[in-house]
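User: Hi! Is it possible to get a structure for several chains at once, not just one? Here's what I have:
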Amino acid sequence: MITIDDLTHIYPGSRKVPARTAISGLSLGVREGEFVILSGPNGSGKSTLFRILCGLALPSLGRVSIAGFDLFAQPAKVREIMGVVFQSPAVDKHLSVAENLAIHGDLYGLSGAEYRSRREEALSWTDLADRLDQQVSTLSGGLARQVELAKVLMTNPKVLLLDEPTTGLDPVSRRNFLDALHRLQKARGMTVLMTSHVFAEADDVDRVAIMREGKLLAYDSPKALKAMIGTEMVVLQAKDTEGLAARLRAEMGLAVRCIGDEVRLEETENGESLPLLEKILDRYRPEVLSISIKQPGLDDVFVHVTSRAVPDHALAIDLKRTGS
Amino acid sequence: MSALIRVSLSLAKREFTRFIRQPQRVIGTVAQPLLFWLFLGAGFAGSFRPAGMEGVSYLEYFYPGVMLMMMLFASIFSSITIIEDRDAGFLQGVLVAPVSRLAIVLGKVLGCTSIAMVQTLIFTIAAPFLGLNLGFGSLVMLLMGFVLTGVGFSALGFLLAWGMKSTSAFHAVMMVFLMPLWMLSGALFPLGNVPQAMKLVMLANPVSHALIIIRAPFYYGPQVLLADPHYLTSLAVTIAWAVLCLGLSMARVNKRERGVAAA
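Assistant: Yes, the chains can be modeled jointly so their relative placement is included. Here is the combined structure:
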């Protein structure tokens, strides 16, 4: 449904600032009806990719096709079938909920009975029914986001792009927003590409793409990604992180990594962690502040993947499987 | 075509709704030119004796000039909201919608023009007190002058504001650029005895032509105006100016930021 082919984007430099490569040779595909999360540290090129995908910027090189249309040659065709939820709300805060929906209807050519039935449908899952005449600025963050999503879904998009849509929401509103999004995505068979930092959001999606420095580092199902770093890991906090890591490597031959103030032993087979933990405690007890066994989550995958140097040929996982 | 009109009107309506929800903005924009007119009019009344204009008081002379100022400033300073629209995020939602880029420009321009019209029409109530009686035909001509001026200069504002990051830069540029154009248009004082070079500037100044199509209906009916080459020239220039600014604005919106070929 979305095919990104060898995309490169270089921001022009000026006398003081050198040109900067935001995306370099990125290829990625999203299949029809798939829910994909795009993730990466700040400055990884996510936002640039998002701007290109919603047609606001043109890349230096490469092609993007959405639903079979060339995004750069036929942007108008793509706009008709695409819905976009931006990080900063694209609603007019000084207008009421109803007025915002009406403008959106006008922009997408909905009118009369069709507009009314679509609006009803779009509002059915929200808590906005009795707030239609309220100005958006007076709504809570969670409700304002609902306006945004209701507005975008009113036009029945085939492809939905979301840029960190849950930023600034409390955990309950975030959960509600995502539940609604997942339910509607399934019911309508929408293709969804969402950028996000929050890995609690990523566990029930189809695939997760992780970017760094404009390159795709990993792209697979959450399960496969978690399997990448072994099934369990031992995480230590020590008085002297680097020192202990060096000793573990030298004296016990363990492949540990230092990430922040933690020492991690990632690729541990199931069942081996506990004996290992005991062994480490036996030998280094005075050095250790805390030690635990952890089931890897997607945030661990993220840390694992993005904290190592970018290799020329990405990771050992199968990047060939990115076609849609 | 109908989509273009529907989208433009929908966006223009939004512009207008936002305007009337801010009463301070309404009062401020009407009161400022009114004070300007009364104070300057009172101050210059005694010394205003241009040749060939006996019987015209300065208040009367300056009246269409203030109307022009209201149209000009109200429409240009309303189009500044494009910067707010971008910062607040509303604009990006419009840009990704399947709408003609011209509709995005027209929505803003028509909204700003209607805002400026409301203010200027309130001011038109003063006409009878100056002994200026507008017939129906002249009123229509005057309104047409307002619309054309509003469209041309809102589009200019749009064009200038599009690339700007802050509203304060916009104010600064407008003051340096627009004030002189307005002063040299003949709005403030007649440009009868000015040097030849100045006349050329005047001729090239779109604001002078806008002034002519706003001032003339107060004195002549439509038949006279539409037969007068002077008026027709100004009308043509004002229309051409509006079309030019709209076209350039549309090209600006159409232009997407592009990555460069190599670092």
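Chain A touches chain B through 43 residues (CB under 8 Å). Chain A has two domains: 2-225, 230-295.

User: Great, thank you!
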